[in-house]
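discrete fold record:
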Amino acid sequence: MAKQKVDEATIIKESLKLFRQTSYHTTSMADIAKACGLQKGSLYHYFSSKEELMMKVIMSVHNFFKEEVFTLAYDESIAPLVRLDQMFSRATSIFVNKETGEMLGNVGVETALVIPEFQPVIQEFFQDFFNAVKKVYTSKYSDIVANELAERAVAEIEGSLLLARIFNDNNFLKNTHKRLVARLE
């Protein structure tokens, strides 16, 4: 028998897992309801559409990264090299998690052009990512160079995530992490 009450945070968490595992487009509201122990109709009491739910998932992932990863960039009580190392260590541990791993890169490619409402929210996530990395790199480089390095760093991370999945080898992420941190040494 289905559960009667589930909170919004649980639905977002279960949706994230499903979207990560099977993709946004192939995950149905019925799949999400089942994962949450709800009837499909009950899910619509929380979210009016799959798009609304996905928007909440994207915002939840973004907020999590802001609190757990990006915030490190602005903690000037920690040496820049350590901040960058900790940022990439935390991000990597999130990315390699099979249930909730790196999602916004996948969603960005999968949905941003098909569902235009997602594009600005996904862009905001990546802009915050660029800004956090740039903040740390400005401890050693000019604003222009730090900006270029930040853009390159995020692109390298996304590329190494793709290769790590294709080859089932997290060494791509580890090697990228080493290269990005070495730029501050």
Remarks:
- Residues 57-182 form a domain with the Tetracycline Repressor; domain 2 fold (CATH 1.10.357.10).
